Amino acid sequence: MRKLLALSLMCLTAAACREEAAAPPEPIRPVKVMTITTASQSSRLAMAGDVRARHEAPLAFRVGGKVIERNVELGANVRQGQVLGRIEAIDYKLGADAQAADVARFRAELALAETDLNRFNGLRTRGFVTEAELARQKTAVESARARLKAAEAMQSESNRQVGYTTLIADSAGVVTALDFNVGQVVAAGQPVLRLARPGEREVEIHIPEGELARIKSAKAFEVTLNARPNQSYPGTLRELAAAADPATRTYAARITVNAAQDALSLNMSATVQIVQNSAQTIRLPLPAVFTRDGVPRVWRFDAATSTVRAAVVTTGAVNGNDWQIDSGLSPGEVVVVAGANLLHEGQKVRPLP
What we know:
There is one protein chain. The protein has four helices and 22 strands. It is of the alpha+beta class. It folds into four domains: 25-42 and 280-351, conserved putative lor/sdh protein from methanococcus maripaludis s2 fold (Beta Barrel); 46-54 and 199-278, Beta Barrel (Elongation Factor Tu (Ef-tu), domain 3); 56-82 and 169-195, CATH 2.40.50.100; 90-164, Orthogonal Bundle (Helix Hairpins), CATH 1.10.287. The strands form five sheets. Strands 2-11-14-13-12-15 form a six-stranded antiparallel beta barrel. A four-stranded antiparallel beta sheet has the order 3-10-8-5, with no helix packed on it. A hairpin with a 2-residue loop joins strand 12 and strand 13. The chain is elongated, with a radius of gyration of 45 Å. The model has no long low-confidence stretch (mean pLDDT 84).
């Protein structure tokens, strides 16, 4: 029995040896490799905007009422002192007339009080009135004079309100926005048009919250007018809002454009780009990076032994079909860039030409 068991074990061992000797050697896998180089990374941020005047202000009537006249159109050039529109002034004229009547009444009362005071002075000299009665008459004169002064102030205010029913351009400029028509009732202080003064032109853009740091650190801007796509102009950041717009959550900014002012027409659409050159970076194709145990790695190729060794790397952002490699590799090293998932540690490979 023991001899039979020993004989069986010898047969199994011999069979295993034959199978092991018959197993073919592992094939040398062809791979695609590349030598690591560095490149300057450029990042661009493009934002849409439009051309505005540096000095631009909304105009409004200083009193409310019904519009009876509008003398300008959108895009019109206006001169200083030009009448832009009028609202109905009847109510304000009636108020001014009432104040004028009050002024006349108080002026007559003052004249009467002064006449009485002169008469009281003569009577006091002859001893017909007391000093107290004379003092009361002097007080009556002062009261009449004060009432007249107040009435004259009210009359002046009423006359000014009549003048406020006419909207006059306080400077020359171009009408860039228009929001009132004949028959419309407007409130006091409601903007009805926007007047852009002649002079320097800028591009207004709106910046998302996440890009504020890039805007502040940018040294220069490149402005392209959509009407002239083949020509660009340098620009600089002049103004950046301190608070975000509550509706859009963006920050308004003004970019001063270094170009001839006749090349920039108001309200032209433009594109503002920020170009930033960062430090030298390493980029690898996406298939070059594989993950083991949640850690990104690449295969280094050893030309002396024709084998590969895994190297742990730190990846950055993806740009198109490339990974940005932040650490783990150095320029001049050779890595596998295709077929990384099919390799294992120490495997012999053959680089493709």
